[in-house]
Structure formats: C-alpha cells, structure tokens
Specification:
By secondary structure, the protein is of the alpha+beta class. It is built from 3 helices and 5 strands; from the N terminus they run αβββββαα. Among the domains are: 30 residues; 60 residues, Roll (SH3 type barrels). A hairpin with a 4-residue loop joins strand 2 and strand 3. It is rod-shaped.
C-alpha cells in the first residue's frame, strides 16, 4: 500500500467555536476602537448644533467663519461673515463654535473699552518715542 493511514487525527470535533472566536474578538475590538468613539463624537456634534444661539461665532465645514445673526428654522442659519455680507448655511455644516456669546462678557468688554483713555497710551513703542522727543 502506498498511502499509509493517518492515526491520531480527529475529524473537526469542537472546531466551530474555535473558528468563530477570532471573528467575535475582531468585532469587539472594532466596536471599542472605531464604532463607540464615533458615536460619542456624533452625539457631541448634535448637542453642539442644538445649543447654537444668535451671536455665536462659528466655523462651517467649508472653513467660513462668521457670527450667527438669525436662526431661520431647524435646518438653516444666517451668518454674517463680513460687514453687511450675510450667508445662509445649513445647520449640519457647522463644524465648530469658536465663541459662545454671553451678555455678561459683552457688558464687561464694553465697560473695559470705555475705560481706556486714548490720551494715555500704555507702555508702547509710540509712548517711549514721545517721551524721548
């Protein structure tokens, strides 16, 4: 006989669980490294979009920076990107909020600007030059 019998080999008993285990482990790794962080990021983006208010300074997905002048409806905003230049933007295209508008902060900034005296320059190059002359 040319072919010798193979003794001691079993025929696939219990191989189903062992063959599925690597696939399950790969799925678990993908879930924790890819799917779950993406879901968290989407949730934060939805919360950010829901919290947009008039006066917020935002960046769109196209890189346009502007202030929200009007919230038209649930899906559209009106941005002022320059003096007198207004653009309608789809709300979902807002990628980041640069400044949240606070009335308290604005009042403090307005008061601070009024307290500055243009006749009394701070320590600057121009003030030092005037003193030398």
């Amino acid at each position: 006989m040319l072919i010798s019998p193979a003794y001691g080999q079993s025929i696939g008993g219990g191989g189903a669980l062992e063959s599925l285990l690597p696939l399950v482990l790969i799925f678990v790794v993908f879930y924790f490294l890819l799917i779950r962080p993406q879901q968290k990021k989407q949730k934060q983006h939805r919360e950010m979009l829901a919290a947009l208010q008039r006066g917020d300074r935002i960046v769109t997905a196209g890189g346009i920076i502007g202030n929200i002048t009007k919230i038209n409806n649930e899906t559209e905003l009106t941005l002022e990107i320059s003096d007198g230049v207004r653009v309608r933007v789809v709300r979902s295209m807002v990628s980041d909020v640069l400044d949240k508008r606070d009335d308290k902060v604005e009042k403090n900034n307005d008061n601070a600007e009024e307290n500055l005296d243009p006749e009394k320059p701070e320590d600057s190059k121009h003030a030092k030059k005037k003193k030398k002359k």
